[in-house]
Design brief:
The protein is mainly α. It folds into two domains: 58 residues, Homeodomain-like (Arc Repressor Mutant, subunit A, Orthogonal Bundle); 143 residues, Tetracycline Repressor, domain 2 (Orthogonal Bundle), CATH 1.10.357. Helices cover 74% and strands 0% of the residues. Helix 1 packs across helix 2. The chain is globular, with a radius of gyration of 22 Å.
Length: 230
Amino acid sequence: MKTDERTAPAAPAVAGLRERKKRRTRDALLRAALLLFVSQGYDATTVDEITDTVHVSQRTFFRYFANKEEVAFAVQDLVESHFFAELQARPAAEGPLEAMRGAVLATWDTLEQALCDVVPVDLYMRSYQLIESTPALLAVHLRRSTGLEERISRLIAVREGLDADADPRPRVAAAAFCGVMRVTGRLWGRGEDTSVAAIRRMTEAYLDQIGPALAGDWRRAPAEGRGRAG
């Protein structure tokens, strides 16, 4: 049987349209959920409220997300993927800490562009602050951070041509970096300025202290401190 060449391209076109529709529905659910989370709280928001906002069924919601927790961290997954892409793209000549510093600052610098097709960057920042201030979400965030730290250490080991299971340095470097990220995230979340620029400034300032803080003589007080003490 001869195929009608005029109708042959229709199947890919229909498939592409279907995928775009699915993406729009998922993004709409994601935006609706985050808006409800930041406006009335994560615990107070139900799946029914999310689906009612988008005018879809619960069945549709669970087609895209396993639960509220997954939707709460969906954009964070995108941001982490963006960070890893930036880290992999860093020049090979950079040392581990320099590469991680450059990657995270580049992530903040290009965050709006990376997220613009999914959610407004301001909504993401507000949801990030929500994670830092909601006990149930913060516990998940800390657990996820452990996996993130391991992924970073493995990537650093590959960059440096090391075996992460035999050489402790990639894990030490990743632990120091992730520790700074946890501190800055917590302090930023408590502050009044919750902009991308604010967390970028804080991240840069704290990362720049890793080397001096670890290399210095901690038993000797800074000269200014000794002057006041006397």
